[in-house]
Design brief:
The protein is an alpha+beta fold. The chain has three domains: about 5-100, 2-Layer Sandwich (Gyrase A, domain 2), CATH 3.30.1360.60; about 160-270, no CATH class; about 285-455. It is built from 20 helices and six strands. It has helices at about 5-15, 45, 70-80, 90-100, 100-115, 120-135, 145-160, 160-170, 175-185, 195-200, 220-235, 240-285, 290-305, 310-320, 325-345, 350-360, 370-375, 380-400, 425-445, 450-455; strands spanning about 20-25, 30-35, 55-60, 60-65, 205, 210. Strands 1-2-4-3 form a four-stranded antiparallel beta sheet. The chain has a two-stranded antiparallel sheet with strand order 5-6. A hairpin with a 2-residue loop joins strand 3 and strand 4 (about 60-65).
Length: about 450
């Protein structure tokens, strides 16, 4: 007799018998099942299974909520009851992906690659925000302390492509160590730093007439690198003789991958960045504040693409020409909208651990670091991300209404308060923009509470 015999009996009755199970696994709180015939499920009885706190169906999965710890025990007893060979993690993932539409698959792939990096990004983001705030407050640091602080705050972001290439290579089934090598080559010190090139304090290398520089802070190029490594390695092993496989396959995989990244993908990204810059300038100048609304709503989408670093060129140009920078409050409004959506989502979670993890991922946003929030919370559901977009758009309208502009650049959200200390009115307007954008994002999530719970 098992502890959950009654639970399992009713569970199997609800889903149409053990023969109807195609696959199953559990997450932190839920037993997830993929069935051969969904029509056999008795949804009315599904809500009354002993020990279960609820049931819902999403992305082809029947999900029974048992809670942290208990779900592990229920799943273990179910696996023992069904016998060996009933499921594997890999086949479950394949079955889950088969039930997703293309957009959901893309978002799921991003999450699988980037979510494991969140602990490092959360810690580094907090340290980076604290450093920026201390500097802006006028704290004087010796060169040695500055160097030590830079090591603590800049390392993870400077080598972000390495972390992403490693995770992406694992995700796509390649050798993660080869992914690390390619990622390191993308940020090698021999290449001019991407931030320095974009800030016009360094010149790119010119090879075959192509501008080449590092990929510091890049996201999508590193994901593509991981995909290339995985696919090339797999393809090469189909025809490279085994006697030279250990040497030739890694050599060709690394050489071809980094060549494509530097000489083919690099120019494409440069063209994309120029297009982004020109489009944003035209958008901001649109009449009736339309550009402000659209930009503040979608600015974090630019962050997702990894092209947001090029925005500093526009900010420099605006400050040089007018002495003011409108992108700073608009970017903050966009962050505040997504922050509100993330916090709203966290408070929808009944599981305390999941709620705590979501809040931890969201906190660096207060210091202008949004990648943990985006990839750890908001991109798990398009409803959450859309709620943040609405919040940011409303904040953008208020920015236009107030005529709010910053006197500097480089800091946002809470540290950005220091850019408005010259005017009490501007400071209060900046705070109002943040609070309203946050509130709208939070409210939009709460209005979709049932649907969002079913999706995450």
């Amino acid at each position: 007799m098992g502890k959950y015999d009654q639970t399992l009996e009713q569970l199997l009755d609800v889903i149409g018998g053990k023969e109807n199970i195609k696959n199953f696994e559990h997450c932190a709180t839920r037993l997830r099942m993929i069935l051969k015939d969904d029509s056999k499920v008795d949804k009315a009885k599904a809500e009354a299974i002993p020990e279960s706190k609820g049931y819902f169906f999403s992305t082809g999965q029947h999900q029974f909520i048992f809670g942290t710890g208990k779900v592990n025990e229920v799943t273990a007893e179910l696996r023992d009851y069904l016998g060996e060979g009933t499921t594997t993690d890999t086949s479950m993932k394949d079955d889950v992906y088969a039930n997703l539409n293309p957009v959901q698959k893309f978002v799921r792939i991003l999450a699988d690659i980037l979510v494991p990096l969140i602990p490092a990004l959360v810690t580094t983001g907090l340290l980076m925000g604290i450093r920026g705030l201390l500097v802006e407050l006028g704290m004087t640091m010796t060169d040695d302390v500055t160097a030590l602080f830079a090591m603590l705050t800049d390392t993870a972001f400077a080598f972000l492509p390495v972390l992403i290439a490693y995770s992406a290579t694992r995700k796509f089934g390649g050798n993660p160590l080869i992914g690390i090598v390619v990622g390191l080559m993308m940020v090698a010190p021999q290449l001019p730093n991407a931030y320095a090139v974009r800030g016009e304090t360094a010149d790119p290398l010119s090879i075959f007439g192509i501008d080449v520089y590092g990929y510091q802070g890049s996201i999508f190029p590193a994901i593509i690198a991981g995909w290339l490594v995985s696919k090339l390695e797999s393809w090469l092993r189909t025809w490279v003789p085994q006697v030279v496989d250990l040497i030739l396959t890694p050599f060709l995989t690394i050489t071809i991958s980094i060549s494509i990244i530097l000489f083919l993908l690099g120019p494409i990204i440069q063209i994309a960045e120029s297009s982004v810059i020109n489009s944003i300038i035209g958008l901001i100048n649109a009449p009736l504040g339309i550009g402000y609304i659209v930009y503040a709503g979608l600015q974090q989408l630019i962050v997702v693409t990894g092209l947001h670093h090029s925005l500093s060129l526009i900010e420099i140009s605006l400050l040089s020409d007018t002495g003011y920078n409108v992108l700073q409050p608009l970017g903050t409004a966009s962050m505040a909208g997504q922050f509100g959506a993330a916090i709203g989502t966290a408070f929808l979670m009944r599981d305390q651990l999941k709620r705590s993890n979501m809040i931890s991922a969201a906190v660096p946003t207060l210091f202008g670091i949004t990648e943990p929030l985006l990839f750890g919370v908001n991109l798990r559901s398009l409803r959450i991300f859309a709620a943040g977009i609405v919040g940011g758009a409303v904040g953008g309208f208020l920015t236009y209404f107030f005529g709010l502009k910053a006197t500097g650049m480089g800091i946002t959200f809470i540290p950005g308060l220091l850019l408005y200390t010259g005017s009490i009115a501007a400071l209060m307007q900046y705070i109002v923009v943040i609070l309203v954008a946050f509130g709208v994002g939070f409210l939009c999530v709460r209005l979709q509470a049932k649907q969002i719970r079913s999706e995450i």
